[in-house]
Amino acid sequence: MRIVIAPDSFKGTVSAQEAADLIGSGIRQAVSGTDCANNLEIIAIAMADGGEGTAAAFHGEQITLPTTDANGRLTEASYVYDDATHTAFIDVAAASGLPQVIDDLRPLTADTFGTGVLIADAQTRGATRITLGLGGSATTDGGTGILAALGASPLSATGYALQPGGAALRDLDSIDTAQLNIPAAAMEWVLLADVVNPATGPTGSAATFGPQKGASSEDIAALDAGISRLCEVCEIDPTTPGMGAAGALAVGITWLSTLMHGTSSHVHLLPGAAVVAEATGLAEYIADADCVITGEGRLDSQSLSGKVVGEVLKLTHGTPVIVVTGQSLISPPAQATVLELIDADPQAQFIDAGHRIAALLNVSQ
């Protein structure tokens, strides 16, 4: 039997690789000493969809440097740099993520400046392409923090630099590029989104994701107005699917690249899960699998649209799938069995899941 284990990370608990390895260990423990032990092949693949852990799915050197979090506090963050392809793989969540500021949420002023520091550093190392994983941000600033880190300053009508964050963008009049880091701005941009939401409106970035970033109803209105104004000044269509990912970060990047090249042809807004699946060769592994195991922290209505679980299900073509999750809020998708984790420490949770999966597959007898 060949089993492919391809989960997303379980945010705040274990990485995708840790989840896959622990589940695999649990299955192997369950079959130890049985006839199945020598005829069982387990392939563990760390998946991601643009959120936390996306950069780790790609090959390269890990670079760690000082930067700032979404609240402007000094921190350290890492990204992956592949010198062979001159590509930097950066998770927005690494510097500008929600976990780093969960103790002090500031939805109106949180910004992506710290991510811009990583981007600028990558360019100095020879990067000509930036692949940004857009999930898990604490920000709704339209990417203006990145612009500021690259020397493009959002200004009010009176010529003063705006305060960080999305709310201040309501007063945006222009963006000063006198100090622009031109080599960084001119790079190729691959933006990996884990959602299809537009930038603004009732299903936009602020309305949909603002509450989890600490935004009240009044904050959401202010942020949505700020992103709307940014789209107006930057001449960006806010209804583009995926433009709302990471606090509408793609708005600022698209404006920047268009400024440099005359068109947006150097910006590629793509579904993160599909790109990671292709990079890892997941479809080829699944084609010969007898069972596929995937999972994420919470299985909900978004899981089947742009997320890892949905991408895995799309690739299985009838192969049995087991979805491991901490909490399931929807009915099991077709061909899938949902297995909820027990209440225990992370290692015990996933080892136990492996034991139960072995029983479900009847390979522990």
TrEMBL record:
Record-level Gene Ontology MF annotations: glycerate kinase activity
Sorted UniProt keywords: Kinase, Transferase
EC number: 2.7.1.31
Transferase found in the keyword field: yes
InterPro entries: Glyc_kinase_flavodox-like_fold (IPR018193), Glycerate_kinase (IPR004381), Glycerate_kinase_RE-like (IPR018197), Glycerate_kinase_sf (IPR036129)
Example GO biological process: organic acid phosphorylation
PANTHER family tied to this protein: GLYCERATE KINASE (PTHR21599:SF0)
Family of this protein: Belongs to the glycerate kinase type-1 family.
Protein name, per record: Glycerate kinase
Species name: Corynebacterium mustelae
